[in-house]
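Table 4 source record.
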Amino acid sequence: MPHNNAPTLLLVVLQPHILEDWLVRLVNGLARSGVAVTVAGSGTRGPSDLDPSVHQMMLPSWEAPRLVRLLRLWSMGLRACIGAPRDLRLFADYVRQQTSAAERLCTLHSLLPFAGRRWDAVYFPWNSAAIAYLPLFDLGMPVIVSCRGAQVNIAPHDPERKELAAGLRETFRRATAVHCVSEDILCVAQRLGLDPERARVIRPAVDPEQFCPGAKTPEERGALRIVSTGSLHWRKGYEYALLAVRKIVSRGIPVQYEIIGDGLERQRVLYTVHDLELESLVRLSGRLPPAEVVRRLQQADIFLLSSLSEGISNAALEGMACGLPIVTTDCGGMREAVTDGVEGFVTPVRDAEAMANALAKLAVSPQLRWRMGEAARHRIVCEFTLERQIAQWRELLQSLSVSS
């Protein structure tokens, strides 16, 4: 139900990020609650994915012929010079810090669309977006930055991304509020310089009406059906999931394992499947539409999360909402969503043997699967609903509008 005096919210989305499913749910939920939302980015989805009330601000791509880029720069610069000279001077000071002429032009091109524009709050769903658009922190609007996972607990340790740690500290210092998806991520961010007084933990959420258990008929009960969803990336630890599947197959447990998602490491995952002689038992289904993901979850018996790093896995929450018991690694904030022995099993990271033992316990006991699946669904309905998340975000936005 719409609310009066709701603030406006700007979302900045950068390539390679698009409006992922969890962000679509958040944006649409805020819009339907009465928040006037603008989504800015060059990689956003089309109108069919977003609520009609959401305004899409398409940022021009730098990938264009040189003449087109120069003409666009001239046009945007002229508009800023006439309508927002202060913003133009601020952007110019920042642009001059870039090391090459090409970088200066590209940076100016990315900033000029925001000259003269104001919202009640600016929200960066990713830390990298906040770092890239650092001058927007100086436009006088409250800024919220999200700490989700990999960009806080992995990227700062990458020797090729040394500048990210410094960028994180700077955005933490300037942000009005920093949203963390879990208490674990909050602790990691504090070690990188986040003042806990600026932090707000709002956990991920799902719509339990969209993600709900399906009916399983007796003839569907054959091989144990295990499912994972997520990008094919090394941090998802799929090689350990596949090793665990190999181990339970060797124990004589019939299995069908489906991985939903795509990514740059598809070939490596396929090689691991081949190396473990699991070709007939493992299916890589690629990226599927949300409705089809729900259907596949409803058909499964167990959700498996083998990640090395997470904030709190949205995919695991979706599996829980569909009534699946969870076998998850003890990474990030997953213990904030799954209690070992209640909604599923929590195993050590990189421990394929422990993962296999958990899967085997569930394989031999349909009653245990049902009981843990019921507990998982109950946990979602009580603590991880989209309605609860939207209320927490609205509270955060309202607190910014009062303090500004």
